[in-house]
Write a structure and sequence with these properties.
This protein has three domains: 180 residues, Histidine kinase-like ATPase, C-terminal domain (Heat Shock Protein 90, 2-Layer Sandwich); 113 residues, no CATH class; 60 residues. It is 55% helix and 13% strand. It contains ten helices and nine strands. The strands form two sheets. The protein has a six-stranded mixed sheet with strand order 1-3-5-6-8-7, covered by helices on one side.
Amino acid sequence: MQLRYGWLCPHSSEGRKEGCGMAKNATRWRWLYDFFLTMGILVTATVLCTLLRQLDSGGGYVHLIFVLAVATISRWTEGFFWGIFSSVTGVLLVNYVFTYPYWEFNFTITGYPLTFLAMLTVSMMISAMNTQIKKQEKLRIETEKEAVRANLLRAMSHDIRTPLTSIVGNTAAILDNEDSFSPEQKRRLLEDVNEDAQWLIRMVENLLSITRMSNGQAKIEKDCEAAEEIVAVSVSKFAKRFPNVKVSVEVPDEVLMVPMDATLIRQVIMNLLENAAIHGGNVTQIRVQLSREGSRACFSISDNGVGIPKEKLTNIFQGGLSDVSHSNFDMKKNMGIGLSVCYTIVKAHGGTMTAENQETGGACFRFYLPMEEGKTSEAEG
């Protein structure tokens, strides 16, 4: 195994947790975002009306501008509070700043209640529509995740029987005919048992990952982790199981700090590495690359195998490869299960995942995880 690393910065786990502390205060930051957005739009509307008044003293545009301001605030803020707040504030601003006598309140003006009612109605309607849209989107996402999880569990329950049958058969053969097997034959049978047991462990790990994402919510506790360290641990673990497969690792000079559940992302990398080694067809070399693309960290795992049948690329992450007829694919284990788990984990992190065949041969899997700006440090030396 060949590892080519840039400089790795020894960040402490406490530092990583502190770096992602703001993510755990999402509600607080959302409130601040809504507050500053509301204030900014109201101030902009006030300044715009003041400038327009220099050109047209009629003031007929004032109500329209503030209604649009209230509509915008209601659309881009959470709940009903800020829409109602902007309605009340907007009516008061129109009354105080843009209605004669200027710079004083006059609640006896004709049409004043109508203006307030119009703004309030607009804010309530748009806030209600926005809330409903978000609920429908959340329901759609939960339904989609539930369907994916159900398909994975169904496929796992089916495919888990094959290695169990093999383990029972091999161990029974040794126990019932111990004297008729040579030491070499016994070793070969035990190696098969060990291989099937290892695969079952991986299957259980995948199953546990799906269980953690219960009720379709895929709620993940993230800490800022050095992506290079996650890759290094995964590759080292893989090398112990597949010493004959050459692995090269390329990482950037900067240390990429990525908010993630380290255990789950290591599982993604391990699944991709094992899929390449087991299902790639005579794979002798795997290339792991880590890079930064804008605000995302890109993890790439490619091999020099036979690639993926073209007809399977479109649904490769749906757990549907158990019926692959490609002669170089290992039929004993379902490649799609591990890939489906990978896809589910990456998606739960807010990332994306792709698969393609390389022009030079072999398959290439990439997944992208969002990074928080300012969480990278330049390499030294």
